[in-house]
Design brief:
This protein is mainly alpha-helical and 311 residues long. It has helices at residues 2-32, 41-67, 93-105, 128-136, 168-174, 186-189, 194-202, 249-264, 268-302; strands at residues 139-142, 151-154, 218-219, 227-228. β3 (218-219) and β4 form a beta hairpin.
Length: 311
């Protein structure tokens, strides 16, 4: 606590000194009324010293400010080498397919994906026949019919993923008051994206000495507040992949993170493909424009224009 008080005092002192240094620098420049190179050696040295002190003080204030941020009470997720992280790298569609299997068998029990439909899987992780078969496994409430009554029917490609709970109140009642977030755009909604999600899924551990966690909560250093209401959702061999991939903890977390990245950015691959086309086209157009400027307009630019007054 004492260190926090000292940091606060240092920030206060520097916040008072830096404006005065800046005002002094401005006053000296105003009094000189000339360029920096024309000043005397002593005055130039004084101005340089003031500038260095002001810049160093600003950097120190910024560092001290970040050192006492409340967000630093949680552990920041490291940066992982995702296969789709490169400038021209595409998503691993095999991993997207396995990630959907993880979502369906594990995550869908609590989390919804209201903005993803079964048709969105076509050409990404499943064929049209497979996506249609997946949709038909669910009973969807529809209606009203001609008699004004609701009815259930097999799912269609146009249907969105079914919700695990009918309303938020039911979701809170089933999860000790915690509301499981929708996962449709969770990779973009959390700072760190898939790095944060992967770290959160694999970061459950016992609380350190002196830290007590309320009953019904679990310790996770990557979660804000470090106490999360979601029990560890995945572990080794929690499911069996259709393609035979070993379902280790890290593999399951990696696949579901890749799936959630695709769900947040369905245009991920198309965007990078379009960016590559734009770069190639821009390079070609730039070469043509350079040729026109260098070899076509040079003749016109070198001509001497003579003004002839009217007779």
């Amino acid at each position: 606590m004492a260190s926090l008080y000292l940091l606060a005092i240092a920030v206060l002192i520097l916040s008072l000194l830096i404006p005065s240094l800046i005002l002094t620098l401005s006053f000296l420049l105003f009094q000189a009324n000339m360029s920096f190179s024309s000043l005397s050696r002593g005055r130039r040295l004084a101005l340089s010293t003031i500038g260095v002190i002001a810049a160093g003080g600003a950097g120190l204030v910024f560092a001290l400010h970040n050192s006492v941020k409340a967000t630093d009470l949680e552990l920041h997720a490291p940066s992982y080498p995702w296969s789709h992280g490169g400038f021209l790298s595409s998503l691993d569609h095999g991993s997207v397919r396995r990630g959907y299997q993880v979502y369906r068998q594990v995550c869908a029990a609590c989390h919804s994906m209201d903005y993803i439909a079964f048709r969105n899987l076509i050409g990404v992780s499943h064929t049209e026949a497979e996506a249609k078969s997946l949709a038909e496994e669910f009973e969807i409430l529809d209606g009203p019919d001609d008699n004004g009554e609701m009815f259930t029917r097999p799912g269609k490609l146009s249907d969105h993923f079914p919700k695990p709970y009918p309303n938020p109140e039911a979701a809170r009642a089933a999860n000790n008051g915690a509301l499981p977030p929708d996962l449709s755009y969770i990779a973009n909604a959390r700072h760190g994206g898939e790095d944060y999600i992967f770290s959160l899924l694999t970061g459950y551990c016992d609380p350190p000495a002196g830290v007590e966690i309320r009953e019904g909560l679990y310790f996770n250093p990557y979660f804000a507040g470090q106490a999360i209401g979601m029990a560890p959702p995945i572990y080794n061999e929690i499911l069996e992949y259709d393609d035979g991939t070993p379902a280790t903890l890290s593999q399951v977390a990696k696949d579901v993170c890749t799936f959630l990245r695709w769900a947040s950015e369905p245009e991920h691959d198309d965007r990078k493909r379009m960016g590559l086309k734009i770069i190639l086209m821009s390079t070609m157009v730039s070469a043509v424009l350079y040729y026109m400027k260098r070899h076509r307009w040079t003749v016109l630019k070198s001509r001497k224009m003579v003004y002839k007054p009217p007779k």
